[in-house]
Write a structure and sequence with these properties.
Blueprint lengths: L3 E8 L3 E3 L17 E2 L7 E2 L1 H13 E7 H6 L13 E5 L14 E4 L2 H12 L3 E5 L2 H8 L5 E7 L7 E2 L15 E5 L2 E7 L3
Length: about 190
């Protein structure tokens, strides 16, 4: 069974978006290099970032996100982002009526059910959990194996927190990856059990 990984780009002070859900400069590192990260040509990163990010992206089988992200992106128009096979949406409202019936999106109630469904769909591939409120809930439930963050040199001061509303201390192991790219620091922490 694949690992469950919590992931996002984040400001130095721990935010994944500002108060208006805007990422601001958090994704600039994805267009600030000379190595294409995907087939679109829109994402270009440093060679160092490519060597770290591309294998990770290729290993993801399923992404878990919350209904808020789904609504903000209009469900990626029914096509999972970044070539992901499936997306599991945590929601109390279920699948929107008439919404892309054949799209590989799965709507579940609760983070435990989301992780169970995602693991079933992913097999031995990674389950990625979007950081934020849902990611924090999955971490609090003890279901995250690894925390990855792309730390961008910006201070937001307020906004949407990387770990959402986690209300208790959680211990991570020492980072087993620390890589400096252009305008980004890639970090990977195993979760201590």
């Amino acid at each position: 069974m694949g690992k469950v990984v919590m992931y996002a780009s984040v400001s130095v002070d721990g935010f994944i978006a500002d108060e208006r859900d805007q990422p601001g400069p958090l994704f600039e590192w994805l267009t600030g290099g000379d190595v294409p990260l995907d087939g679109s040509g829109a994402l270009t990163v440093s060679q160092t970032s490519y060597d770290y990010v591309r294998p990770y992206w290729d290993a993801i089988g399923v992404t878990i996100a919350g209904r808020h992200v789904f609504d903000m992106t209009d469900g990626w128009d029914g096509t999972p982002p970044g070539g992901i096979d499936h997306v599991v949406i945590v929601t109390h409202r279920g699948r929107p009526e008439g919404w892309h019936p054949a799209a590989p999106f799965h709507f579940v109630d609760g983070v435990e059910a989301a992780v169970a469904r995602a693991r079933e769909l992913a097999g031995d591939r990674l389950v990625e959990v979007a950081a934020g409120d849902v990611g924090g809930q999955v971490l609090a439930a003890g279901l995250v194996d690894e925390v990855r963050m792309d730390v961008v040199p910006v201070v937001f001061g307020s906004g949407k927190r990387y770990f959402g509303a986690v209300d208790a201390q959680r211990l991570l192991a020492d980072p087993d990856v620390v890589i400096q790219g252009n305008r980004v620091l890639h970090l990977r922490y195993p979760v201590r059990r």
